[in-house]
Amino acid sequence: MDGTEPVDGIRIEPLSGALGAEVSGIDLGAPLDESRFAVIRQALLDHLVIFFPDQRIGPERQRDIAARFGSVDEEPFIYPLRMPALEGHPEVYRIVKEPRDRSLNLGGFWHADVTYRERPNLGSVVHIVEAPTHGGDTLFSNQYLAYETLSEGMKAMLRRLRAVHSSSMPYGGEAARFPAVARDHAPRPEDRSFEASTHARATTAIIEHDHPVVRRHPESGRCSLYVNRAFTSRFLGMSPEESRPLLEFLWRHAERPEFTCRYRWRRHCLGIWDNRCVLHFALNDYYGQRRVMHRISIHEAARPN
Ligand code: SIN
């Protein structure tokens, strides 16, 4: 479903050849009846990440929308950080970057969210409270395409493998801490100070779970590649050294530009991504500007399989 023919007055415009669509003709501040929610759900299944510009809603409505997809993650937590939540709304965590913040860029690496959990997130609903005038885009990558473009031999081998995902971020974590870049700001080595972060460190032990390397989407039935640079540490039954060369190949493949779209956020935009078949990457190129995103995540109903 895309492009020119609105369904229920809702228009859906694809953003790239790979994934992503902008949805207009709907006011998310008003209650969503079943038929309009069905259009949104189908748009998410078809386009994997969808954006609704100019939605002036508060956290309650954002939560109501998230809850239509599944059970809301009440304790947003990203190891090893306790995320600052919106006051009175522990389920809404605030992804905030201050103009002079050089220490932390949450999500500045290709990843799917919290894949180290037994039941990772089904997806997230984000609302942009403050956007930079330019920069701060998010990139998304279609992991159905990543799987479908592999050779039959590689697909058959991968379908037999499981991979361990670890919250210790064995390879990808460092990139999250890269200081911001801007036209007039080249970061220095001493800018890489994680301790300066305003995010409290949690004491929880490392979380690890294994998942299939190729997973089947519970709604679309399609297979996608399910490894990511941030959290996947090794193939089950293999050492990190044995796993790394194939993981490196798969990560690079998963991040190919032709599988991606890039979204430029505007204030009041609401975005929803399907964390089961999409990777994302938050660009850190807006030093000197403020960006505030409210994010609510949704639990997967069952373990990936
Ligand atoms: C994330 O959830 O990884 C952050 C996304 C973003 O800030 O664009």
Describe what this molecule looks like in 3D.
About 20% of the residues lie in helices and about 30% in strands. It has five helices and 20 strands. The strands form five sheets. It has a nine-stranded mixed beta sheet, covered by helices on one side. Strands 5-6-12 form a three-stranded antiparallel beta sheet, with no helix packed on it. The two termini are about 25 Å apart. A hairpin with a 2-residue loop joins strand 5 (about 75-80) and strand 6 (about 80). The chain is α+β, with helices and mostly antiparallel strands and about 300 residues long. It has one domain (about 10-300): Clavaminate synthase-like (Double-stranded beta-helix, 4-Layer Sandwich). The relative contact order is 0.26. The model has no long low-confidence stretch (mean pLDDT about 90).
